[in-house]
Write a structure and sequence with these properties.
With 50 residues, this protein is mainly α. Helices cover 90% and strands 0% of the residues. The protein contains 2 helices and no strands. The protein has helices at residues 2-23, 27-49.
C-alpha cells in the first residue's frame, strides 16, 4: 500500500511543479518558489513517509 502513496505523491508533485513553472514569469521568482516548494515537500516526505 505504501507504493501507491509514493506514486500518488510523485504524480501530485509533478503536476504542481509543472503548473507553477508554467504560470510564473520571472526566472528569479521561479527559482525562489521552486526552492521553497522543494523544501516543503521534502519536509512533508520526511515527516509522513519515513
Amino acid at each position: 500500500m505504501e507504493n501507491y502513496y509514493y506514486y500518488i505523491f510523485a504524480i501530485v508533485l509533478l503536476v504542481v511543479v509543472f503548473l507553477l513553472i508554467k504560470k510564473l514569469a520571472s526566472c528569479l521568482i521561479k527559482s525562489i518558489v521552486m526552492l521553497a516548494i522543494i523544501a516543503l515537500l521534502a519536509y512533508v516526505w520526511y515527516v509522513y513517509f519515513r
